[in-house]
Amino acid sequence: MAGCQIDKSVIRPIRFFNGKAQMLDQRLLPAEEVWLNYNTYEEVAEAIRSMVVRGAPAIGVAAAIGVWFGVRDIETESTEEFYAEMEKICDVLAATRPTAVNLFWALERMKRFAHANLDRTVLELKIGLEYEALAITQEDEKLCIQLGKQGEGLIPDGARVLTHCNAGALATAGYGTALGVIRAAVDAGKKISVLADETRPFNQGSRLTAWELKKDNIPVTLICDNMAGYLMSKGEIDCVIVGADRIAANGDVANKIGTYTVAVLAKAHKIPFYVAAPMSTVDLSLSDGSLIPIEERDAREITHLKDIQLAPEGIEVRNPAFDVTPNELVTAIITERGVAEGNYQQELAALANKR
Ligand SMILES: CSC[C@@H](O)[C@@H](O)C(=O)COP(=O)(O)O
Questions:
Q1: Is 137 in the pocket of ligand 1 (CB under 6 A)?
Q2: Which residues contact 283 (CB under 8 A, 6 or more apart)?
Q3: What function does this protein fulfil (predicted)?
């Protein structure tokens, strides 16, 4: 049977046009599809912090738009003063979520643009920065489509693919990274089915991955996080593909908490474990994964389900939002510029220099 048809145009979690932005409130999916309006950088910072928008590439896109909202409202004719104010705005946005490096990548790109154009007028800088934010948004979806094409050959026809968290259209400007590879495999005519880990505690798998794959008519089956090992032992999973929040120079991968567990299980069952991420997620400044900052989130994400109490009052809780999968557990890293396999140190550096 040929793969099912996809309407690629439908899911884009951030709308940015005519100087206005809207974001799909991912905290409410799948029950409600609510679009929120954004006008200031403080509002955008709060949207990132509270996970209205989430997923490393989408966080970067939102941050770039946030910077533009901030600089648009700066009142000065001096480009030096303008740049100093812009740095303060970037600092506020940078303080929202520490692990996803795309956030810092996007802020740096916006600052680099401004710094390189300080000989222009403040009005020209503002116009240029709006275009830069728009370019970051549009490029992100294009990169995901390229990344999907780079990776789809690794997914065999008929594969039952496990994924963890949501590395889909919702986590990017559109199309997705890990789910982009799956979309590209389906587009290539392969019959693919997906197993989605529910991904406690924020349930990106059950709420978001299941929602967007269903919307695209890609067969998806939801499982609890603790079921993957059993299904692997029964031969019901052919490969794993996940996204990443930050990849160190040696190929160690920070991704949603639970990814490391899945990678260990995949190794034990001799199942390929693929990571799909744009080059903006690769942080060559960090030699290995131990240097990646890991966000600890509010205990309430674990002790409560909305207002329902799931644990005793006052219980001690740990809530690291990400873990690090060591490079030896990663079969390949798929980027928009090519696939790295084996010596990640060399291959990621080579991809970084490739245009
Ligand atoms: C293409 S998104 C890749 C990662 O950002 C994704 O797997 C993930 O861990 C998202 O975490 P989140 O806490 O939902 O922002």
A1: no
A2: 101, 246, 247, 248, 249, 292
A3: Catalyzes the interconversion of methylthioribose-1-phosphate (MTR-1-P) into methylthioribulose-1-phosphate (MTRu-1-P).
Mean pLDDT (the chain) is: 96
pTM of the model: 0.96
Please state the domain extents for the chain.
Answer: 14-145, 148-353
Judge whether residue 238 has pLDDT over 70: yes
- Per-residue pLDDT at 18: 87
Ligand 1, from 101, 245, 253, 322: best to mutate by most atoms within 8 Å of Cβ? 245
* DSSP symbols for 128-139: HHHHHHHHHHHH
Among the CATH numbers 3.40.50.2300, 3.90.1150.10, 3.40.50.10470, 2.30.30.100, which is that of 148-353? Answer: 3.40.50.10470
- Rounded to 10°, the helix 56-72/101-116 angle is 40
To the question of domain 14-145 being in CATH 3.20.20.70, the answer is no
Q: 18: which residues sit within 8 A by CB, 6+ positions away?
A: none
225 alpha carbon – ligand 1 mean position (Å):
16
Reported ipTM: 0.99
